[in-house]
Amino acid sequence: HRGQLAYQGVTLSLANFARLDVRGRVCAVQQSSIFIRVSIARLINERRRIAAFARLQARAPRLGRLLRPVFELCFRRSLICLGHNQFVRLDVLQSLGGFPTSGATEDSTLGYALGARGVLMAALPMLELVDMPETNAGMIRQNARWYKGVLDDVAFLRGVWRARPTAYNFAQLARHVGNKVIEWPIAALVYPVLGFLGWHLAYRFSYHPVWFLLGVAFPSISLGLTIWVGGIVTQDLIESLAGHFPRRVDVVRTTLKAKFWGTFRCQTYWLLATRGAWRVLWAIVRTGRFEPVKTDRVVR
Question: What is the domain extent for residue 45?
Fold first, then answer.
């Protein structure tokens, strides 16, 4: 897409992959896959949805006008900017007053600001490798800073919606609160709780075939999909991109230990991310504020 107002390239947290231990490598692969799924895949699919709705509106203008609020509320998605490998035209950035500095993560806030202005970012086929924090403490600090930015963006999005109460601006606010503010701290608890409820349901209604099967099947299928997608498909995705890396990085799992932990500890990164979110919430409860520190960077 040439001549667009803003672009987002592919960012992978694999620059220091060789120096990470087994757990760090699992986390680096998981974080990289998140960047691809929530940013690049979303940008590509967003353009497709908008193009499909534009075709509908061209064929049936009256129906399109009636459905536009529903489309923007239910099917539009927010722009997720990563900071790295992100390009915005200078005049567009100046029209926004520069990078938004109201929160701890100005790149994320910029994505919301661009979306509110109607600017649709294009996915850029350019890949960048960035550093991954090399310790658990560093990953927790990184996610704490990001979650503080999530909390800061609530006020920004609320202000945007009050200034222009459109369906899209409301959707940005509602999804941000649901998918980030609420889901981030409890993500690591969802699977254990649902698993317990499922097995309890099977035990409690063991005499009822339908309830018993549902109670056994749902947790088992959920666990299987988690391992398949998080531990296997994600690794295959990252390995398939290795030929496009700006420099050689060996991401192939060569040892049995790496394959085992990479497959069955695929939720390690989410556990650390959850700890980062709770660090922010606990600090706010205790002191009323949280001061995020800069993300760890490797000095070469």
Answer: 6-287
